[in-house]
Amino acid sequence: MNVASLVLERARSEPDGIAIRCPVNGWRRKGSRVSYTNISNADLDRESDCIARGLESIGIVRGTRTALMVRPGRELFSLMLALFKVGAVPVLIDPGIGLRPLRRCLDEAEPEAFIGVPAAQAARIALGWARKTLRITVTVGRYPKFGAPTLDRLRELGTSGPHDAPYATATMEDADVAAILFTSGSTGPPKGVVYQHGNFAAQVEAIRGLGHIQPGETDLATFAPFALFDPAIGMSALIPDMDPTRPGHVDPRRIIEPAEEFGATSLFGSPALLDTVGRHGAKHGTKLTTLRRVVSAGAPVSADIMDRFLGMLPDDAEILTPYGATECLPVSCISSDEVLSETAALTDTGLGVCVGSPVPSIDARVIAIDDDPIESWDPALEVPTGSIGEITVRGPQATTAYFNRPDATALAKIRDTDGVANADKSTDNKSGFWHRMGDVGYFDERGRLWYCGRKADRVTTDRGTLFSVQCEAIFDTHPKVRRTALVGVPVQNGEMPVICVELLPEIPRRARGAVEADLRALAERYAHTRDIRHFLFHSRFPVDIRHNAKIGRPELGRWARRKLRGRIRNASSVSL
Length: 576
Description:
The chain is α/β, with parallel strands linked by helices. The chain has three domains: 39-172, 3-Layer(aba) Sandwich (Rossmann fold), CATH 3.40.50; 253-455, ANL, N-terminal domain (Rossmann fold, 3-Layer(aba) Sandwich), CATH 3.40.50.12780; 458-570, 2-Layer Sandwich (GMP Synthetase, Chain A, domain 3). The protein is built from 18 helices and 25 strands. Strand 5, helix 5 and strand 6 (136-139) form a beta-alpha-beta unit. It is globular and about 75 Å long.
């Protein structure tokens, strides 16, 4: 099972169908009209065949780990498909994580080949990325100044000689390594997640089932890793003219115009992108008349963002928020109908964020919180329904390891044992492992999963444990608050809980005193926030690059410690 075969099936059955629509040139100046070009399924197949032959000719063959740093567009799709056809192993790293983490990731991944745009090649040379292992480089762009063949040269090599038959795609087993995808680093150091071909195939089927996606639909894909799935799912990928590393700063017109021009039926975007576009739509009365579904992931999507964005959509459209992670996606899913009619009100009272029922291919369990490795599964690990614990999952889309990170793998994986699955589950678990999501939550009586925050973000005081999402949701209801973050400041016998507060941009600094008084009153209403005494106002929270939504809590925690240094010295274990 080579994941490339999913794309090839469509190329053979619908050769004239559109695989990709992308901007003719890169990110245009503000206010200019964007032109798009179409690539058919047959064209994508032929071009990737050509590139695959070129890759082989320069030594990129089955099993070659190949770092790929190319902007979203035709070249990225063709190169990814060509690498899969060859049986090579693409290595994808978010360039927005920063130069130092990027170097660590590349050194850790030990790529033998590097395919990148000129800027990436220049950085590779100047900063010595993967110098010990690299032996092949390819430049994607107009400036072949790096002692490396260009993508155009690969195409020439791939077309030289007779090639009457399609390229012979490598035959792969489900367990063969397909790619190494690095996490964003927003919830810990970036780690290379090892994807097998079977993981990708299961993920495609699970994503297709989320929104009852039909062949021939058009997906406005604002996040490159998900855009790569579109041809395999049977959708046309519409790549907007935007900087994918800054979704929260997108020009809304760059989303609205192509959606309407090409009749997009689906959109994938981070909560930050939905917030920006939704505010524009509410202000200008803009409608997206063809969208049937919006999929948003990477962080919880607030009810306000959902409600505002739904105002731009047809009455029968919905917003789906799948829950998962790079290591396993999707785990579960919930629709805007259920959130807005029921669960959002419960979230506001501190019950957590409902992320829906697990998808059919996933078996999810909640176990007692433990910061140490767990070698093998034991049913005694599970906690009762309604009790908060650590979320663990197994299923065909759950990955089994991190690359070159045995310690991280040991912390995140639990060896499976026989007889653990429920009789009513049809989970096809070929991995033999449970994955620990690193999140805490619980199951309600209806079998729905509720997310309460990251395990690492819990704050342990002498009076009990506080969970980030449960606390923050209460304070986030304040009309002048943009978002809040719970952090813990170490004191004697535990941590001092602190709420960091970011106000809406239009709220003046002089309003902070009144807002703080309101937040203290809110804290008194609920048992799990009643002991929070410290509120600190921050001008702008640090957030992750990939989704512009996950808060950089370690950095906020260090900031809070500096702000409260005097109070910490005087704090006792009794008066937190």
